[in-house]
């Protein structure tokens, strides 16, 4: 597992950036003031990254410290820049580990669905337009991003080494989340995930 360090902070920022931006938030602290997003990130840290300590008090201190580092007024627009590099460096290693260990991959499937939607449109869920700045995506990557087959995103160059298309359960989740984000929006999907308590901690 990853240790509590800058990589975890970067991974958490990446997990938050795309869904929160699409939902209409523009800074990290605004997004984390929404219980749905704070629970989503807490679940990622608690269940996917799993901070490495056997001491419950130390774990809570680490988690509190990380949230303190996260909850500043960083621009989500800036955090969305160069997602190709950030996903490859900070999220893909955790996803590989989860897949290899046959563990829960739903939160990262949700993130990649949000990332794919973010790249394939230029309007957030409130109808506000935005510009995409992802300089490490190549022409072939953009062909896959703009394909009518949303699964093509999983084979863009930053993700190709993980061979995500070979994990049928992951592909099914990703496709479902892409469709729901397009049809219902980020917030509706997050609420459904929280209600069913499959992907996040309880909201009450």
Automatic annotation (TrEMBL):
It comes from the Bacteria. Pfam families: Mannitol_dh_C. Gene3D superfamilies: N-(1-d-carboxylethyl)-l-norvaline Dehydrogenase, domain 2. InterPro entries: 6-PGluconate_DH-like_C_sf, 6PGD_dom2, Mannitol_DH/Oxidoreductase, Mannitol_DH_C. One of its GO terms (molecular function) is oxidoreductase activity, acting on the CH-OH group of donors, NAD or NADP as acceptor. Residues 8-155 form the Mannitol dehydrogenase C-terminal domain. This is Mannitol dehydrogenase C-terminal domain-containing protein.
